[in-house]
Amino acid sequence: MKRIPCMEAAVAVMESEGVDTVFGIPGAAILPLYAALQHSSIRHITVRHEEGGTHAADGWSRVTGNVGVCIGTSGPAGTNMITGLYTALADSIPMICITGQAMRGKLHQESFQAVDIVEIAKPVTKWAVQLKEPAQAPWVFREAFRIARSGRPGPVLIDLPIDVQRGTCLYDPELDGPFPVDVPEPRAEAVRAAVDLLMEAQRPLILAGGGVVIGDASAELRALAEHLQVPVQVTLMGKGAFPEDHPLFAGMAGIQTQTRWGNAAFLESDLVLAVGARFGDRHTGDLDVYRKGRTFIHADIEPTQIGKVFEPHLGLVGHARPTLAALGEEARRHTSPKKPGRWVKQVEKLRTALPRRDDFDDVPIKPPRVFKEINEFFGQDTTFVTAIGLYQIWSGQFQKTYLPRRYLVCGQAGPLGWEVPAAIGVKCAHPNRQVVAVVGDYSFQFLMEEVAVAAQYRIPFVIVMINNEYLGLIRQAELPYDMNYAVDLHYGEGGIDHVKVMEAFGCPARRVEVPGDIRDALAWATAEAERAQLPVLVEVMVEREANAAMGPSLDAIKEFEPLPELALAIDWSD
After folding, report:
1. Where do the domains of the chain lie, and which CATH numbers do they carry?
2. Which family, according to UniProt (predicted)?
C-alpha cells in the first residue's frame, strides 16, 4: 500500500465516483486539495460566488443523476454555500460541498475565517462532517458519496482543516471503489393491495413527483399507465416524468403551477397513486378540498415522508423505479392491456374545454405569449432551467415538457439567482444539448456575476428574461393588504440596463417589446450562442400588472362553467 497525500486520495475517490467537473473558488485554507486537483482528470470551473458554485453543482447533478461537487475555502465560503445546500436538500439533489478550515488547534481561538460550518450546515444536509485525521480522507469521501445517493438523495458537507489536508494516508485506488447504494423494493403485499385499489377505482390518477425523475423511472411509469389506461398528472418537480403530448397526460394540479383542466381532472378523480411526491403546500392547497372523496396511495423511498402531510390509505416504501415496475408486473398479472375508457375520454374533454389563452397580440406583451413562442421554437430535447417568482408560475402553467431531466426548477427552496449558475452546470454536463434559462429580471440580478463564468469558459446558452419591472410575485401578494410598497424596479431612469450588463461581460443581448419579434429574437439568440460560444440574453418586456395564478393576463376568457357532459353525475362504469 502506497503512502500519498491524503488529498490525492480524496481526489481519486471523486474521479472514481464519476465526477468530471467541480465548481469552486480556491482560497488559502483549501489549497492542499487544489494542489491534488490540478493533476487530476477533473475539470475545475472557477465561479464568482460560492452560492453560484453550489447551484452550478446542483444543475450538473440534476441532469446527470450523479453527485455534484462544489469547493470553497474557510469561513464565508462555507456560509455562502448554505443556500445551495438547502436548495439541494429540499429538492432531493445529491451534492457534496467541500470547505477548507483553519488548523484544528486554532478553532477555539477565533482564528481568521474559522467558523463551525459543520454545525451551521447540519440542518440543511444529510450529513455534515469535519475530517479529523488524514487516514480517514478516502473513507469519509466514499461515505459522503454513498449518503448523498442513498434513500432520498441530498447534500453532504465535508469540512477540511488545513493541517489535516497536509497529511498523508495509505491508499491504493486499485483496491477501492464506490460503496454500494441500496435500492429498496416495495413489499409484494403492499403492491398487490395498491393494484387492487387501482383496479377498483372508476376515476384513478397517477401523480408523478420529482422522485420519478430522480429515480429514472419514467419508462416504468409509462408502462403502468398505458397498460391500465390511467391518466397521469405531474407535480412541478415531476415535469418531464411523463410526456405532455401523451393521450394519458392529465395536466398539473395546484394553486399556482397548474393547468385549469388539471385541477378539474384532479377534483373529479376518486383515487390518486402518488409516486415520489411530497404533497407540497403549493400543490395541495387546502387539504380538506384536496383529499375529499379520494383514496390516496403514497409510494416513496423515504419511509418518514409517508404520512408527513396527511395520512394516505396505503403506503408503499420503495425506490420509484422498482416500485413502478412491480406495480406494472402485478397489473399485467391481473388483466390484459386495457383500452381507453370513459375516464380517459373525460380527461381529454377537460383538456379541450379548459385551456388558458397564450395567443395574445397585446402590447405590452402578455407573459403567456412568451411561453407560446418558447414552446413552438425550442425542440423537445432542450433543457430548461427556471427558478422562483411569477415567471416560474407562468412557466409551470404554460411550458410544455416531454422528457425527464429537461425541466429543472428549484421547487421548494426557491432561491433567486439559481438559473444562470444552474444552466452553467447543465451545459458543462451536456455540452451538445440546447440549454435555456428562463429568468426574472430581479432573480437575474442576484447572481448575474456568474455570467462572467460562462463567458470565461465559453459555455453557451440562451437566457430568456421575463421583465415586468416589478417584484411581481410580491406585488401580487401585497394586493390584499391594499399596498404597493417597495416592489418597484422600474429602469426608466437609472437602475440596470440588462442589455448593457450582458455587453459588459462581452455577451450579446437584445430587448423585445413587441410579441411579433419574440420568435426572431429566440432564433437570433440560439444562433449567436452557438457562433460565439457565449451566453446570450433575450429580454422580453411584459406588462407590469400581469398576475398569476389567476389574472387578466391568463384568464381573459370567461370563467369556465361545467358543461352537462362534464358533470360528476356521469355513470363512469365501462
Report:
1. 3-175 (3.40.50.970), 188-355 (3.40.50.1220), 367-541 (3.40.50.970)
2. Belongs to the TPP enzyme family.
